[in-house]
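Tokens in:
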């Protein structure tokens, strides 16, 4: 055991970092669920963007709290660099969801296409998996976090297929205007990026479980 590990074991730990990051993951799940509500006659793109933006602001406050706490805390439950990276990765997912919701409103999207809706559903499933997995980090539950990572990888693989098929269909359909093609491809890319970021978080969680187990 190194000196830093010995100090970490002897001194009391600030476990509230886990609580803050668990809240971040819950915000991802909330934002993704809200995005699923964007449907004609139900929730408009503008309404959806406002709700997701409010959640994103709450997420920014959580990240700020993590960063402030790191500056004031001598002994952290896991390496402070890992806490900083994980909190930032979680915030990145929420930022991507917010950017996508805002773009849907900015581009005047009346309704999401079927592939967009499916990607949103997959993100919501991945967000729910992350929210359920985050408490496992406290226990360094390698098996649980590895299982969650496997499930999120499956969702990401399906998302890749949905994205490729949708983009291919856009380019093959001669009735699709250049304007619509550019808009839809960008929105599909944003959604796929958000799903990819969920997988990145889940892989890092599994890595931390091994490292701190």
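Residues out:
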């Amino acid at each position: 055991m190194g000196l830093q590990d010995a100090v970490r074991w002897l001194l009391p730990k600030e476990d509230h970092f886990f609580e803050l990051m668990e809240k971040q993951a819950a915000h991802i799940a909330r934002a993704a669920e809200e995005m699923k509500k964007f449907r004609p006659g139900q929730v408009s793109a503008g309404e959806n963007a406002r709700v997701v933006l409010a959640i994103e602001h709450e997420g920014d406050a959580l990240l700020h709290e993590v960063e402030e706490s790191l500056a004031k805390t001598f002994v952290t439950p896991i390496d402070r660099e890992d806490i900083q990276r994980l909190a930032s990765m979680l915030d990145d997912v929420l930022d991507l969801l917010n950017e996508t919701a805002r773009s849907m409103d900015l581009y005047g999207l009346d309704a999401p296409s079927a592939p967009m809706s499916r990607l949103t559903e997959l993100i919501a499933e991945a967000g729910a998996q992350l929210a359920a997995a985050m408490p496992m980090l406290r226990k360094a539950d390698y098996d649980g976090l590895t299982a969650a990572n496997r499930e999120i990888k499956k969702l990401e693989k399906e998302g890749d297929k949905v994205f490729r098929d949708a983009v291919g269909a856009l380019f093959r359909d001669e009735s699709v205007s250049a304007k619509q093609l550019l808009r839809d491809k960008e929105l599909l890319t944003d959604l796929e990026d958000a799903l990819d970021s969920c997988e990145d978080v889940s892989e890092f969680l599994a890595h931390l479980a091994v490292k701190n187990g």
